[in-house]
Amino acid sequence: VAAASGGLVAYADSGSDAAVEQPQLPPRKKVVVLGTGWGGTTFLRNLDSRLYDVQVISPRNYFAFTPLLPSVTSGTVEPRSIVEPIRRVLEKKGGEIKFWEAECFKIDPQSKKIHCRSNVGTSLEGNGEFLVDYDYLVVAVGARTNTFNTPGVVENCHFLKEVEDAQKIRRSVMDCFERASLPFLNEEERKKNLHFVVVGGGPTGVEFAASLHDFVTEDLSKLYPSIQHLVKISLIEAADHILTMFDKRITNFAEDKFGRDGIDVKTGYKVVKVSKDDITMQNPATGDISVPYGMAVWSTGIGTRPFVVEFMKQIGQANRRVLATDEWLRVRECDGVYAIGDCATINQRKVMEDISEIFRVADKDKSGTLTVKEIQDILDDIYVRYPQVQLYLKSKQMNGIADLVRSAKGDAEKESVELNIEEFKKALSLVDSQVKFLPATAQVASQQGQYLARCFNKMKDAEENPEGPIRIRGEGRHRFRPFRYRHLGQFAPLGGEQTAAQLPGDWISIGHSSQWLWYSVYATKQISWRTRMLVVSDWTRRFIFGRDSSC
Ligand code: FAD
Ligand code: MG
Ligand code: MG
Ligand code: MG
Ligand code: MG
User: Fold this and answer.
1) Cα(389) to centroid(ligand 2), Å
2) Number of domains forming the structure of the chain
3) ipTM value of the model?
4) Beta strands at 144-145 and 302-303: parallel, antiparallel or unpaired
C-alpha cells in the first residue's frame, strides 16, 4: 500500500507521464473516467486507449453485473460470479489504462482537476488525498439510494445496490430464520422475525420479493419445517400499482401472482418511519399503522450523490435534481466534461425553443413562408436533432410533415400550402410533449458508454473536420449524431420460474418461456467468459441441489 501511495503522489506531482513514456510524440490528451459500473466499464471497453492517456478512478475495483444482484440475495448465484475485476478488463486493452482505487469528492472544472481520496486504508501517508488533471472527464458515478429522508431507514433497512448489500441481505434472512427457531421465543416473536418487508414496488423490489419467496418455499421450508407457516413477505408501494413502468398486463399479472403466492402487496401505502422493531406506514383511509418486522429492504428509487450535487451548484445547475447534459452527453457550460448513466439525464432540446431558427434555416428562398417541400428538405436534420417530432407524428398516426402542415391549415387545403411563422409554430406546438426521459437502467448506461467511446475514438477526426450532419441550430456544427437510445426490452422476474418480458413494439410475453429467454439474455450479456461460466454453473447447481442456505 505504501508503495502504491508513493506512486500516486509521484504521479500527481509529475503530471506529464505520457511525455516520459513516448518522448517523440506530443502528449496524449488525458481522459479521466469516474466509476467502474455499467457506464464507465462499457466506455472503457469500447475506447481506443492508444489515442488517450486514460485514468480510471473508482472506489470499487470491479464491475458488478447488477441485474443478478437479486439472485445473490437468495444464493441462486454466488457473489463472485457476477463481478469482474476492473484490472482484468483493462489488461485486455493492452495494459495502458491506469486505475486508482479511490473516490472522487470534488470536481474543479475551472482548473480541470479532480480531488480524490483513496479508500484502501489508513496506512497511507497523509490523508490519502490526491489531485488528478484531465482534459476530458467522463462522470459515470451512478446514483445513491434515495430514502426521501424517511426517519430510521438508513439505520434499520437494507439497500440493494452493491454486491455487499446482497450478501448482507442473504445473511440477514438466514439470521431471521435461526432467530425464529430459538427455543425460548413465543409465537408473536417468531412471527415478527419471519416478517420480511420490501419497500418499493419497482423492478428491483418486485424481483427481490419474488426471489425471497422462491428461496423460502423451495429451500428454507424444508430446513425449517416447524416455523415455515409463520413466514410473511410484504411488499409496500406508495402508488396504486406495482411495476408501473411496465405494461398494464404485466402489472396485473404480477399483482395476481403475488396474491396467489401469499405475498402481501400493500399499494397506496407510504412508509413514514422505520424503527428497530416496527415499520410505520400511512394510507389516507387507515391513517398510520405500525407493523413489527424481522428484516426490511428499502428500494424506492435513486438520488444524486452529494459531490455531484456540489458540482451542479458550481456550474449553475443548483435548481436541478439530476446533472443535465446535452444530447451529445456533454455537461452544459463545462468544457470537456461528459456524464453518462444514472448520475445524469439528457436535456432534450425543445423544438419550440428553436422554432424561429428552424424556420429561418428552412426558408431557403427567404420568402417568409415555408412550403411543404422546404420543410421536407430539412426534415432529416430535424428528426435527428429533435426525435420528439417523429414520435409525435407516430403518436398521431401521421405519415409525414405534410399531414401536420395540413392539420395546421385546416383539411381543405392541399399540397400547395405555405405556412408563415405563426402557423409553423402552431403546427409544431405540441411535439415537445413527446420528449422522454430515459430510465435509470444498465441498458441506457451501457449504450451511452458505447456511444461516447465511439465519439472519443473519432474526436481527432472531428476536430480537423468539424462540418457535421446536424446544422439546424447556430450553436455550432456537430460531427456526431446525438445519442439515440434503442430500447431492447425489459424483464420482470416474478418467481417460480416465471418472468414477464416487455419487448420492443410492446410485445408482451409472460411465463416459463420468458424465463428461458431471461436466462439466455443474461448469460449472453455477461462481461467475460469467466463470469458467464460461473453464472451458468450456479444456475445448474441450483437446479440440481437447490440453493445453499449456509452463510
Ligand atoms: P453504476 O453501475 O452504479 O456505477 C457507478 C460506479 O461509480 C461504481 O463503480 C461506483 O463504485 C463508482 N463511484 C461511486 N461514487 C464514486 C466517486 N465518488 N468517485 C468515483 N467513482 C464513484 N438495469 C437494467 O437495465 N436491467 C436490470 O435488470 C437491472 N437490474 C438491477 C437490479 C438491481 C438490484 C440494481 C441496483 C440495479 C439494476 N439495474 C438494472 C440498474 C442498473 O444497475 C443501473 O442503471 C446501472 O448500474 C447504471 O450504471 P452507471 O454506470 O450509471 O452506475
Ligand atoms: Mg459507471
Ligand atoms: Mg454497475
Ligand atoms: Mg441517466
Ligand atoms: Mg419559403
Assistant:
1) 31
2) 3
3) 0.97
4) antiparallel
